[in-house]
Prior knowledge:
Shape: globular
Strand order of the largest sheet: 3-2-1-4-6-5-7-9-8
Structural class: alpha/beta
Strand content: 15-25%
Helix content: 25-40%
Radius of gyration: 18 Å
Amino acid sequence: MKSLIIIPTYNEVDNLRPLLGEIFENLPQTDILIVDDNSPDNTGALADEMAAHDTRVHVLHRAGKLGLGTAYIAGFKYAIDQNYDVAFEMDADFSHDPRYLPNFITAIEHGADLVIGSRYVKGGGTPNWSFLRRFISGGGNIYTRIVLNLPIHDCTAGYRCYRRNVLETIGLDTIVSQGYAFQVELVHRVLKYNFKIVEIPIIFMDRRVGKSKMSRKIFIEGFLSVLRIRLNERKETSQPAHITLQQASTPPTENSGGEVGELPSVAQK
């Protein structure tokens, strides 16, 4: 399976080299696309240096800080153009542990169209978060699930793996959300087009090095974007796709679009 891991970067020079080392330890045959937004700390230059020494590493330079959503869309289009079978979303700060990468591939091989690394299914967690951060994240997911009627435990998760045909179908050029709302909008569309989503458990840790990019602006944008998605949904004349919730104990099966489920934990390294 030809896979591409898309990693947006902005001031991640201290994380990049060790992160790629751990990725290749866990998924040696994957390619990586670093999408750098002209980082002042020379992350882009380091990415170019690594790409020059490893054909699995590719770099896309952008003029400035253009947002997480547009970075992933650029990466998705690259994955489609280069005929990758699957494309991952992954943060550069080690909050997404590379040891879970084989579990995503296993879920895809069992029939998933989108695999989400979930903090809120059995086996997942956020052990080093403050109470306030857990309250905001958990509350935001509950709000999103209720407003959009989504049977997903972790709607805002950013550790994901998509089949290429999903990315070709959901209309990348019409996605407008940024930040955490971008993840919500993509989940909503994947279900709308009747693809199957599987959640696998991950332990999500705070970034090892650097400063969190979470801000009040991102939080407010996420809140308002969920309402916008809901209002746009009401304007559509077509009926929403039928969704069947699959129990965690049942392995996903082929050709069962429109389902949402969980896979039991796969043995970790």
